[in-house]
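Below is how a single chain appears once it has passed through the pipeline. First comes the sequence as given, then the structure the pipeline wrote out for it. We keep one example in the README because the format questions we get most often are answered faster by looking than by reading.
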Amino acid sequence: MNKRNLAKLYSEMSPDRLSIIKAEDEIEEFLETVKEAIFLDREVKFPKRGTFEILTRKPRVVSNPATREQMTIYPKKIIKFRASKKIK
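Resulting structure:
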């Protein structure tokens, strides 16, 4: 599902019957708020839904399949979502 389909679904479920463009704006605002909260607290919990958290991947050495040259992949931070047991 892409953002446009999500906005369509959100506008249909909304009691105010929002336009799709307004629904996209609200979704974007929500995602930006979650992003800021994750960077401030490193974790955002939604009760009975799940948790967004920042994980740091370790550096590792891999080889290029074409040249067999060894390369280092540097550590990076990723955002992970863990669904709660009630959703699973």
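The beta strands are 43-46, 50-57, 60-63, 70-73, 76-83.

See the next section for the split statistics.
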